[in-house]
Every structure is written in structure tokens, then in C-alpha cells.
Amino acid sequence: MSTWRALTLMFRVPRRGRGFWFSLAIDLIWPLMALAARLRFAGKLPRDGGLLLASNHLSNADPVTVTAFTLAAGRVPRYLAKASLWNVPVVKQVLKGGGHIPVLRNTVAARSAYTGAVDAVTRGECVMFFPEAGFSDDESHWPSARVKNGVARVALETGAPVVPVVNWGTHELLPAGSRFPRLFPRRTVRIVAGEPVDLSDLDGFDRETLDEATKRIMHAITELLAELRGEQPPVR
Fold it and tell me: Which stretches are annotated as coiled coil (predicted)?
């Protein structure tokens, strides 16, 4: 995608349901991202109905690039984010206005994030998960073996499709731990969506079922990333 095409695309993506502050953040950040990186998108998302996206996680830039991809595919993403961000000036307006879901980590109230995600999907919205709940701890940037079952639980509760999404290149644009992006040389960021993960034969919420559903989702993410990178993932 050329820089000019990326810049003009922002005027054709969905605006309804973004909220004023989330929409303003998109309008301010999108041109900067289009200038900072070459964006390459592939794959489609269902245009209607409740939807779950599950992505690998490499960089703090991932929510920005995934948002651009999701909007370009015709959907407005809702994120789960740590509740402390709702106390940060400006950021809290973006998160609240965008309909994002606070997560009270390591507390009994953490379940409210699950309920919020289920409610959003039931309303027909698109909810984004990073199942690793943090950056990959693999030095070669393959998906971590450390994952959470949240997206699997919401999928089994709602019956909504889970679409694997992979990022590649954001770790070079904004490496983990860096406060500022690396602008030179200009990086290429690729994002691809795959086919929905088949969970139709799974029923219930016991640990074994949730682990199996999560395993399938992470396998789909890893295989999609391997195809994008043209490499074989490590055997876990």
C-alpha cells in the first residue's frame, strides 16, 4: 500500500461507532503511521455480526496497526486494556469514548472484563484480544507459550467466530521497551487475517475445553505467521 493510498484510505473507513475521542485519535495517528511505515494488509473480516480477533503481540504499535487494518476491513475494534489507563488524562477519553473494556488485573473484579467482552460481541461488535497478554517472550518473535484463555471463553460463550490476525514488522518500527519509533530506514508492517478457527465441536467451560480452544487459536496464529514470514515456527 503506497503512502498516498494509506492516507486516502482513512477517509473511507467506518466512522460510526468510534466515539469522538477515539475517532480523533485515529485521525491524528493514522497519517503519522502511514508516513512512518509501509503498510501491507491482506485477508478479510466478516462485515457484520459479533466477531473476535486474536493477534500475536510484538510492540506497543500493534494496537495502532491492528486498528488501521480492522477499520480498513470495515469493522471498528474494541480493545481490552488495563484499567489503570482509564486514569490517564486524554487516554481515558479515548478509551471510554471508543467503547473499550477495562481489565482489573489480578483482582476479583477482573471477570467484569469478560462480561464486557461478551456483551460487546452479543451486540454485534468486533472485540480484539492479544491472548499472550503481553509481548512475546520468544527471542525470535514467535507467539509465546504463555497465553490466556479469555478469547476462547468468550468464543464458546457467544458462538462468535474467532479470526486469527498476525502482525509482522511492528517490533522493528517500535521495539519493546522503546519510547520512540525507528523512522529510518522506513519499515514495512504486514498484517494478515486468516480463516475463522473451527471450535464447533467444543462445548462447556471446563479447563480442558478452554485449553483446547486456546491451543487451536494459537496454532492458527502461529501457522499464519509462519506463512507470512516464510519460516518454520519452533516445535513446542
Answer: none
Cα angle, residue 167 at apex, residues 229 and 163 outer, rounded to 5°:
105
For residue 170, being part of any structural domain is answered with yes
- As a whole number of angstroms, the distance between CA 25 and CA 189 comes to 20
Q: Residue 130 has which C-alpha cell? A: 492479544
Number of domains in the chain: 1
Band of pLDDT at residue 106, cut at 50, 70 and 90: low
**Residue 36 in contact with residue 186, Cβ under 8 Å?**
yes
Q: 149, 157 in Cβ contact below 8 A?
A: no
* Bridge partners, residue 127, by sequence: 52, 78
Which pLDDT band holds residue 108 (cuts at 50, 70, 90)?
A: low
130 in a structural domain: yes
Q: What is the pLDDT of residues 31-44, one digit of tens each?
A: 989 899 999 999 99
Please indicate, yes or no, if residue 235 is contained in any of the structural domains. no
Strand ranges of the sheet holding 77-82, from the earlier edge strand across to the other edge = 37-42, 187-193, 162-168, 51-55, 126-129, 77-82, 101-103
Domain assignment of residue 234, yes or no: no
**Nearest-5° Cα angle at 29, 129 to 79:** 15
Residue among 222, 188, 205, 195 at smallest CA distance from 65: 188
Largest CA distance in the chain: 50
| Owning domain of residue 222 | 3-229
Cis peptide before 185 (omega within 30 of 0): yes
Q: Which residue carries 477499520 as its cell?
A: 71
CATH number for position 37: 3.40.1130.10
